[in-house]
Design a protein that fits this description.
By secondary structure, the chain is mostly beta strands. It is built from 2 helices and 12 strands. Strands 2-1-7-8 form a 4-stranded antiparallel beta sheet, with helices on one face. A 4-stranded antiparallel beta sheet has the order 5-6-10-9. A two-stranded antiparallel ribbon has the order 3-4.
C-alpha cells in the first residue's frame, strides 16, 4: 500500500485497475508549498424557481511520470515513467468508482468523464493534468489515516456485494 508523503503525493484506486490495489503517484509541486491538488465547485441543474440545488466538484492534479523523480521522503521513485504512465491512463479509462486519496482526505465515487486529462510530453518526463469529478451533495472527506485503518464490519462473513446501504466502517 502506498504511503502519502513517503512514496507518493496522491493515491488512486479502482476495483478494475491494478487488481483493485491502490497506486501512488508523484504530483508536480512547488518547492515552497509542495504538490497542489485543487478543487473546483460548480452549481448546476437549476430548479424551476431558478435556484441551484446540486453541486458538482472537480479535482485537478498534475501527475509527473519520469524515470528520475524522487518520492516526497527524498528516496528514488522506483516505478518507471512507462509504468506510472500506463497505470495513470488505466485509472483515467474508468468512468466511475475511482477513489482519490490526498493529504486532505479520501474522495470516492469519482469519474473521469468529459475533459479528463491534458498531457505535456517532454523527452524524459510527462506532466499529465488530470480532472476527476463527481455530482452530488457536499460532505467532508474521510480522514485518510482513519479510512486506511477501518474495515467493513462484515468483511469476512458477508457474501453479497457490500455497499454503503448494507455495511459500515469501524475504526
Amino acid at each position: 500500500m502506498p504511503t502519502l508523503g513517503v512514496d507518493c503525493h496522491l493515491i488512486l484506486q479502482h476495483p478494475s485497475v491494478n487488481g483493485g490495489v491502490a497506486y501512488g503517484f508523484i504530483a508536480a509541486d512547488n518547492d515552497d508549498l509542495g504538490p497542489a491538488i485543487s478543487l473546483q465547485r460548480e452549481a448546476f441543474d437549476p430548479a424551476n424557481d431558478g435556484t441551484y440545488t446540486d453541486n458538482r466538484r472537480k479535482w485537478f492534479f498534475t501527475a509527473v511520470c519520469a524515470d528520475e523523480v524522487h518520492n516526497p521522503d527524498g528516496s528514488d521513485h522506483t516505478p518507471t515513467r512507462a509504468a506510472d504512465y500506463a497505470m495513470l491512463i488505466s485509472f483515467l479509462g474508468q468512468r466511475s468508482a475511482i477513489t482519490l486519496t490526498t493529504p486532505e482526505g479520501v474522495f470516492g465515487s469519482l469519474k473521469a468523464t468529459t475533459h479528463y486529462a491534458t498531457e505535456i510530453q517532454y523527452g524524459g518526463v510527462s506532466y499529465i493534468t488530470c480532472q476527476l469529478n463527481d455530482a452530488g451533495n457536499q460532505m467532508a472527506p474521510a480522514d485518510p489515516t482513519r479510512y486506511a485503518q477501518s474495515v467493513f464490519v462484515d468483511d469476512n462473513t458477508y457474501v453479497g456485494a457490500m455497499n454503503i446501504g448494507n455495511s459500515y466502517f469501524v475504526n
